[in-house]
Design goal:
The protein is α/β, with parallel strands linked by helices and 503 residues long. It is built from 21 helices and 14 strands. The protein has two domains: 250 residues, Rossmann fold, CATH 3.40.50.300; 201 residues, 3-Layer(aba) Sandwich (Rossmann fold). Helix 17 links the parallel strand 10 and strand 11.
Length: 503
C-alpha cells in the first residue's frame, strides 16, 4: 500500500457518512515574532484611570474557570498562574500585589513601596511571566538586585511559579564560573536575574555578545531599589547600574519597575522626573507607609550589657530557657566581627554558621542552606542577609551591633515575624554610641523598646558565674584564627594556602 501512514490513520477515523473528520491542533510557532510596536505603545500610554478600568473589566469579564481559582483572577492574572500560586500556598494577594499587578499588566512603569515581607517579588514576577508566555522572547526581563543570596531567591521563585511552562531563567552573580555564564547569556534566556557588578563585568569582557541580548529587554526590575540607586553609600554598585542601563533598550520600549521597602531621595527624584516622550508618568503603589514599617507581631526589646563583655552576655543570652531552641540570626556591622563571633560561638558549642562577603560563593550558599535546613541554629551575618531573604522559621533577630542607618534596622528585623508569624528582635546596647543609635531607631519606627526580660533569669549573675573565664579564653582563640585566616578547628583556609603558593 502506497498511501502514507498518516493518511491511512485519518481515513480509518472517518465518520459514519464517509466524510473525513478534520484533525485540528495548535502547533507552537518556532518563529520569533517582532514585538508589536502599536500594541506596545498603547500599553505604555495607559493612565492610572485606565488601570482601574482594566481591573474592573478583568473582574467583570472573568470566565467561570477564572472565578474558581480565587482572588488573583480578579486582578487579571491567568488561571494557570493562579493555580501555580495556589500550589505554593499563595491564594490571596497582599496589598502591594493588588496594587502593582494590574498596573504592570496595563503596561505602566511602577514604583512598588511596601514593608519587608509583603510579597514584592510575586508582585513583579506574576505579570512578567503572564506577558512572557503570551509570546516567549529572549531576553524578555532583567531583574537587578544587590546581593547574591537575594538574586538566588528571586531566581527560585521565578522557576517555581512558572513550573507549568518551560522557563529559561539564568542567574548571573559573582562567585560563579564567568565563562559558563557568558555561554548561557549568549543562548538568550527568557529571564536574567543578576547583581549589577557581575553583569557589568560581562558587558566589559564580552562586549557586543552580551549587549545584543540585553537590547531585547522589555521588563527591567530594580529589587531593593534604594540600595541599587544609592550614589553615596555604594558608589561602585551605582556605577555598575548606570553601565547596565546604558546598553538596554530605550525606556520607551520597555517597562521599568522599582521595588523597595524605603523611599529614598534618589527614588523620589526618579519618580518626579518628566516621562519620556510617548510614555505616561509611572504609577506609585505605596502601601502601608503611613503606619509602622515593622510587623505588629514583632516584639522589640533591648538588652543592656557591659561593652567589654558583649560576647559573654551574648553567649549566656543564647542559652536561656526561652532562647535555647530558637532559630536565630545575629547581625554585625562588619565582616571581621561576624567572622570572630562565628568562630567564638562554634568553640562554645553553639550550632552556628555565617554569611558575609568574605566567604566564597559556594560556602555562602552552603551555609545558608544549612541554616534553612536547621542543621545550624544560629546564623551570624552582616547586612548581606538583611535584604529580602525569606527564611520562614527565624524566631529571633539579635542586633549585636546597632546599624548606623535606622532603615537598616528595619530590614534586619524584617527577617522574622514574616507573613503574620510572631517573632522577636533584641538589640544589644553596651556603649554611649549604642544609646544614640537606639534612640534614632526608636524615632524611625515610632515605638519605644522595652528592656529584655525573661522570668527567673538574671543574665549579669550568669555571666559572672559561668561565662567570664570560658568565653574570654575562647575569644582569644577565635581572634587568632581570624587573624591567621584559619578555619574552625585551627586548620588553615585552603584559599589562603593557594594564595601563598601563588606568591
Amino acid at each position: 500500500m502506497n498511501t502514507p501512514r498518516k493518511r491511512r490513520r485519518i481515513e480509518e477515523s472517518d465518520g459514519e457518512d464517509g466524510a473525513i473528520q478534520p484533525i485540528s491542533f495548535a502547533a507552537p510557532s518556532r518563529i520569533r515574532r517582532k514585538p508589536n510596536n502599536t500594541s506596545r505603545q498603547k500599553a505604555v500610554s495607559a493612565t492610572p484611570t485606565q488601570v482601574a478600568e482594566a481591573k474592573g473589566k478583568a473582574a467583570a469579564g472573568l470566565s467561570k474557570e477564572n472565578k474558581e481559582v480565587g482572588e488573583f483572577g480578579s486582578l487579571g492574572v491567568r488561571p494557570w498562574l493562579v493555580r501555580s500560586l495556589a500550589n505554593l500556598s499563595i491564594k490571596k494577594p497582599t496589598k502591594i500585589q493588588s496594587e502593582c499587578i494590574p498596573a504592570i499588566l496595563a503596561g505602566l512603569d511602577c514604583f512598588g513601596i511596601s514593608k519587608t515581607g509583603s510579597g514584592k517579588t510575586v508582585a513583579f514576577a506574576v505579570p512578567i511571566l503572564q506577558d512572557l508566555f503570551k509570546d516567549p522572547a529572549a531576553i524578555f526581563a532583567l531583574v537587578l538586585t544587590p546581593t547574591r543570596e537575594l538574586a538566588a531567591q528571586i531566581y527560585e521563585q521565578f522557576v517555581t511559579i512558572s513550573s507549568p511552562h518551560n522557563l529559561k531563567a539564568l542567574l548571573v552573580t559573582g562567585g560563579r564560573d564567568m565563562r559558563d555564564e557568558a555561554i548561557a547569556l549568549a543562548r538568550l534566556p527568557h529571564v536574567v536575574i543578576s547583581t549589577p557588578g557581575r553583569l557589568a563585568d560581562h558587558i566589559n569582557s564580552s562586549g557586543e555578545d552580551t549587549i545584543c541580548g540585553l537590547r531585547r529587554v522589555r521588563y527591567l526590575v530594580f529589587d531593593e531599589a534604594d540600595r541599587l540607586l544609592d550614589s553615596q553609600g555604594n558608589q561602585g554598585m551605582f556605577e555598575d547600574v548606570n553601565l547596565v542601563m546604558s546598553v538596554l533598550s530605550p525606556p520607551t520600549e520597555r517597562q521599568t519597575m522599582f521595588f523597595t521597602a524605603t523611599m529614598t531621595p534618589e527614588l523620589r527624584l526618579m519618580l518626579d522626573k518628566p516621562p519620556h516622550e510617548g510614555k505616561r508618568p509611572p504609577v506609585l503603589c505605596e502601601v502601608d507607609m503611613d503606619v509602622l514599617k515593622i510587623p505588629d507581631t514583632l516584639k522589640q526589646t533591648y538588652l543592656e550589657v557591659v561593652d567589654s563583655h558583649r560576647e559573654h552576655y551574648l553567649h549566656m543570652f543564647l542559652l536561656t530557657e526561652g532562647n535555647i531552641d530558637k532559630s536565630v540570626i545575629i547581625f554585625c556591622n562588619y565582616t571581621k566581627t561576624a567572622q570572630r563571633i562565628h568562630h567564638l560561638l562554634r568553640h562554645l558549642d553553639h550550632r552556628a554558621t555565617s554569611l558575609h562577603s568574605k566567604l566564597p560563593q559556594r560556602q555562602r550558599t552552603d551555609n545558608l542552606g544549612r541554616f534553612r535546613a536547621a542543621a545550624a541554629r544560629i546564623l551570624v551575618a552582616t547586612d548581606v542577609a538583611s535584604r529580602g531573604l525569606d527564611i520562614p522559621d527565624v524566631s529571633l533577630v539579635v542586633n549585636l551591633e546597632i546599624p548606623q542607618d535606622p532603615d537598616d534596622y528595619i530590614h534586619r528585623v524584617g527577617r522574622t515575624a514574616r507573613a503574620g508569624r510572631s517573632g522577636e528582635a533584641v538589640t544589644i546596647v553596651g556603649s554611649q554610641r549604642d544609646v544614640g543609635r537606639l534612640l534614632a531607631v526608636e524615632e524611625r519606627v515610632g515605638q519605644k523598646m522595652k528592656k529584655w526580660e525573661e522570668e527567673g533569669v538574671n543574665l549579669e549573675k550568669r555571666v559572672l558565674k559561668d561565662a567570664l573565664k570560658i568565653v574570654t579564653e575562647k575569644k582569644l582563640v577565635a581572634m587568632n584564627e581570624v587573624e591567621e585566616g584559619r578555619e574552625i578547628g585551627g586548620r588553615k583556609s585552603s584559599r589562603k594556602q593557594m594564595l601563598r603558593v601563588q606568591e
